[in-house]
Amino acid sequence: MQKENNEIRQNGIPPIRVFLADDNVDFLHSLTRYLESDSRISIVGEAHSGREAVAMIPEIAPDLVLMDIKMPEMNGFEATRQLKKMNPQLKIVMLTLYDTAEYRWEARNVCADGFIEKSQLNSHLNEIVTYLMQQQNEDTIVRTTGHFIE
């Protein structure tokens, strides 16, 4: 995992601080490599279960959490519900292998800011980061085409 980058980028905007929560180690490694290639992103932590994410995220205070739905000990929906109770402004995007109406309903129910199939993350990540760079200090819902809750 890359060390947190506290430097202000040339345009004066700090990198988006991203926390990853997924029990699939291979997916986490691939996602980390992909995210590290974007200078606008700083990976600040990772968890392998929902319970671990809930324990770590309040202290780390990331700008964005990419949260898998199916994890041991506590699923991503319950972790998101608890994290949003602690910090309603925290941006959480649910990740899943399967885009189902039930999963989308539950993501809305727990106040997730977004929902993306893992296979679509690469094509939508730039839009997410661009949005967050523009709205870093505002209390707004992350929106993008197709895969976000509107």
Characterise this structure.
It contains five helices and five strands; from the N terminus they run βαβαβαβαβα. The protein is of the alpha/beta class. It has one domain: Rossmann fold (3-Layer(aba) Sandwich). It is globular, with a radius of gyration of 14 Å.
What is the topological layout?
Elements: E1 16-21, H1 25-36, E2 41-47, H2 50-60, E3 64-68, H3 76-86, E4 91-96, H4 101-109, E5 114-117, H5 121-134
Parallel strand pairs: 1-2, 1-3, 3-4, 4-5
Helix pairs in contact: 2-3
Jot down its keywords.
Rossmann fold, alpha/beta, 19% strand, disordered N terminus, disordered C terminus, 150 residues, five-stranded parallel β-sheet, 5 helices
The CATH first-level class comes to: Alpha Beta
CATH topology: Rossmann fold
Please report the number of helical segments: 5
SSE order, one letter for each helix or strand? EHEHEHEHEH
- In what order do the strands lie side by side in the largest sheet? 2-1-3-4-5
Distance between the termini: 32 Å
pLDDT < 50 stretches? 1-6, 137-150
Question: What's the structural domain tally?
Answer: 1
The CATH architecture designation is 3-Layer(aba) Sandwich
Q: State the helicity in percent bands.
A: 25-40%
| Subunit organisation of the chains | single chain
Specify the biggest β-sheet: 5 strands, parallel
In total, the number of strands is 5
CATH superfamily: Response regulator
Described by the principal axes of the CA atoms, the overall outline is globular
β-strand amount: 15-25%
